[in-house]
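quick one, 380 residues, struct below
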Amino acid sequence: MKHRRSRHIGRGFLAIGATAFAVTAASLIGGPALADTGAPPVEWDASSIDEVYAPADGYYSYAPSVIRDGATEWIWSCHNDDFRVIKDHIYLTKIVDGVVVDSRSVLQASPSPAWDSFHVCDPSVVAGRFSYQGTTYGLAMFYLGNDLDASAHNQVGVAFANRPEGPWVKLPDPVVTFDRTDQWGAGQPTAVSMPGKPGTVLLGYTQGDTSTRAFVVSVDLPAAESAKISEPRLLPTAGLTGTDGAPDYLNGFDLVYDKRGDRFLTVREQHPYPTDNPWWIGPSVQVAAIDADDLVKGRGVWTPAGDIDESLTGFPRNHNAGFARDWKGNLAAKDDVTVVFTKSCSSLPTVDDQDWSQATCDSLYSYDLWSIDGELRKRR
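---
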């Protein structure tokens, strides 16, 4: 969720049945770490930039979770359901051979006073084997929810289904909790299935209170009623750079696993935030890579792969992005990377319009989804 949210997106976690988090890259994914060639991991193809999904006027779509399976793409996104009403649903947009064939709300807020009774947003969908109330499900959707008409008291929940469009059955309580109602909370989840453990997911997320930090946990859901969640590991930020070239922090990120390189890629919001409207989202996203073992252990250095910014796309805002992945959270194609990002307009104030009330950029309702492809460099 990102509606004029706080610039500090930070921390707040309560584990359910917390366990030790001792997982190596080999047991997590499999395969040895490989030496780096020294070249950036991805070479972008600017000619591949294309519009993916544009909602109707008065509607927005952002923060996509993208699964590509042959000629079909399923994109779950944060979307409003009523004209010019800022209340988030999770929509599924189905695309076949590049054509949108369906787009509908598939996950809505729960009735009050549930923890997710106002906004549901920031989906991340992954396949596995999850049991809940005697039913086995093949898909899990992690999502942000809150109970306030505000960018506050966010927590992370999970729902299960056997079809991409649902019906989705929610676990009634959040898996990552946050107590305070005056701070942003915990959200922006990204989930990858653990090979050999079909009911266990590696879950990354952002936490925000007085600062901004990103964490990773393992979530054990073969029997969701007794979910086990590891102690959180703080993710490293070394190597990440902002638009000004200075060291940057980590939030608003998606993860994908590169099997051949035994590494994770992230696409994440870049800072500092701009001063023109919309000032609550970054102008660009950065893709970076890190060894799988380092990410799991909360250490290491990211290798930047390049920024997706106005100089590349021609758009003043490039934000809230996700990778095209397979059902398990791996790269959809072993030699290529596709990033689906959110585009929006921007505008500057004038002497007579200091609060942007007359601004020509209706920023939230300009949010739509675009994509760019890149070639993944091999590691030797």
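The chain is about 5% helix and 45% strand.
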